[in-house]
Design brief:
Length: 140
């Protein structure tokens, strides 16, 4: 009986995380026109969102997100600390630019809706700031 209850609880938690993941994607997609969701049509974990923000250096984005208190990573979990494009994304057929601009958000049992809102707002603010800096240095 305990196993059945644990299974139901786990299913409910996965559904909650999936809703939060989808909410984060919605916030990013509405505010970052060049955002692309990676693996959206493939079987995937309920708690993981992988997004390419075209034209944005993922390392710069990750540093800025960290300063905003948002945890994210580039590449897959097995590639943490690597600065090369994810071999998984490349194997999925993504172009190098898209793979190199990818960031991964992982949610957990304690992730809240307020944290998702804050993360979405932080991505928008940081992308706006990075794009403004890029255009300021662009040569006409």
């Amino acid at each position: 009986m305990a196993s059945a209850a644990e299974w139901v609880e786990q299913e409910q938690e996965q559904e909650r995380e999936k809703k939060l993941r989808d909410e984060l994607w919605t916030r990013i997609a509405e505010n970052v026109p060049d955002a692309k969701q990676n693996g959206a049509n493939a079987p995937r974990l309920a708690n993981t969102l992988n997004v390419s923000l075209l034209g944005i250096d993922s390392e710069m984005l990750l540093i800025a997100l960290d300063l905003e208190g948002v945890c994210a990573s580039s590449g897959s979990a097995c590639m943490v600390g690597s600065v090369v494009a994810s071999h998984v994304l490349l194997a999925m057929g993504l172009p190098m630019e898209r793979a190199r601009s990818a960031v991964r958000f992982s949610l957990g049992k304690w992730t809240t809706a307020d944290e998702i809102k804050a993360a979405g707002d932080a991505v928008r603010k940081i992308v706006d700031r990075l794009n403004t800096r890029k255009s300021a240095y662009a040569v006409a």
